[in-house]
Structure to design on (280 residues):
């Protein structure tokens, strides 16, 4: 098997929708799949979350047949972030080595217990023992630095979400990318954990389920706003910001308007959309 030997650092979005998948013409340009992002670092792939978008990513990885070493890192195990797990093709091939990472969040046990919990009867016909990939279950701690090897470092931070969630930052070849969803901010207060994780980052995605105007009606839901994403960008001296975790009711036209407002402040920032690829 031939592995990629380049040093590319590329992020591709396979699902950007939060809460529930949203098929339908009014959502098509942004995409209706739930959360999944692929981060290619040279000959390695890190996948953040396994929403419905991961199915297509899995097929693509197998079809290309170039990269066989994968890390699947979960922010948390709410349905919109895990429902694609049993449909990720590399799990069903002995050619793949997959490390699955999860945090110890409220109500969840070890990563292996959580995986067994999300694939079991009566919710699903078979358990993860059907996987033929070399699958290892790894645990993520708060504020951890993980050396993934091949020059890839990952840092974590706790997020403010019911039951907890983990934010991630990937460093590779002198560039950085952060993946931050699901989290809620307290209006007027800065989340220091998030700012620390975002400090000088080149690109980050951030939970923008709501707008500042909508947030008071959804206090305690565990989500944030695109306006807070922009404030965090400034506070952390970060590069570009992309909003993610779009609510299932948010139409393409509404997201276009949000993107226009974001770009008025910073031309390189915007809205994450399915199939969008960015090379750092
Ligand atoms: Zn979510
Ligand atoms: Zn959640």
């Amino acid at each position: 098997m031939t592995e990629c030997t380049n040093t590319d650092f590329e992020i591709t979005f396979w699902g950007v929708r939060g809460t529930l998948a949203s098929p339908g013409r009014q959502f098509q340009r942004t995409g209706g799949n739930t959360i999944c992002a692929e981060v290619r670092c040279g000959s390695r792939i890190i996948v953040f979350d396994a929403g419905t978008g991961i199915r297509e990513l899995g097929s693509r990885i197998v079809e290309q047949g170039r990269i066989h070493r994968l890390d699947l890192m979960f922010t948390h195990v709410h349905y919109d972030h895990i429902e694609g797990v049993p449909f990720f093709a590399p799990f069903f091939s002995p050619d793949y080595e997959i490390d699955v990472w999860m945090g110890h969040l409220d109500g969840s046990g070890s990563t292996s217990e959580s995986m067994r919990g999300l694939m079991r009867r009566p919710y699903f016909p078979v358990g993860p023992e059907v996987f033929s990939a070399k699958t290892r279950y790894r645990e993520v701690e708060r504020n951890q630095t993980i050396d993934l090897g091949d020059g890839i470092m990952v840092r974590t931070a706790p997020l403010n979400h019911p039951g907890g969630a983990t934010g991630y930052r990937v460093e590779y070849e002198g560039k950085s990318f952060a993946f931050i969803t699901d989290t809620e901010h307290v209006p007027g207060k800065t989340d220091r954990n998030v700012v620390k994780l975002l400090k000088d980052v080149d690109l980050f995605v951030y939970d923008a389920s709501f707008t500042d105007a909508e947030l008071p009606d959804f206090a305690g839901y565990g989500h944030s706003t695109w306006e807070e994403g922009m404030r965090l960008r400034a506070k952390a001296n970060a590069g570009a910001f992309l909003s993610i975790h779009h609510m299932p009711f948010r139409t393409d036209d509404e997201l276009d308007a949000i993107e226009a407002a974001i770009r008025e402040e910073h031309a390189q920032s915007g809205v994450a959309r399915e199939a969008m690829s960015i090379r750092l």
